User: Fold this.
Amino acid sequence: MSAENVKLVGTLQPPPGRDLATLFRDEGTVSVLIEAMVPYVDGAVASRFVPADGEGSANVGMDGLRQTWLDWLEPWATYRAGVQKLIDVGDQVLAISDDHAQEKGAEEEIALPGAAVWTVRGGKISALDIYADRTQAFQVAAALREARS
Assistant:
């Protein structure tokens, strides 16, 4: 099942160069995206942005998933995620990305090391945790892997 989980998460990654800030802020575009995700995402999906200094609060459902992305994207005028690697952690998949973003009011883009943990249950995404600190995501993935052993 783990290879299938990695494939599922890979299917849901944005194409290279896609500006996620524009995508999630535009009502029309995001509604098309959400409709396309319905077959792959549990309707009660739990999602959260995990800040470097805390736990973050969970949002529920497809509207909650959008809100999580909006929370994550709040400081950015543009944001592109470039997934570099998907790592099987059983029911979870660790997505490692090299993201690029431009802060609102800034002229230059900065590089951001990104990471997220996607949870798959019953062949659908049931949770998504987006980490501001890649190290936190690695620690979570290591703990999950250890728990599987």
User: Anything to note?
Assistant: Residues 2-148 form a domain with the Nuclear Transport Factor 2; Chain: A, fold (CATH 3.10.450.50). The two ends are 16 Å apart (CA to CA).
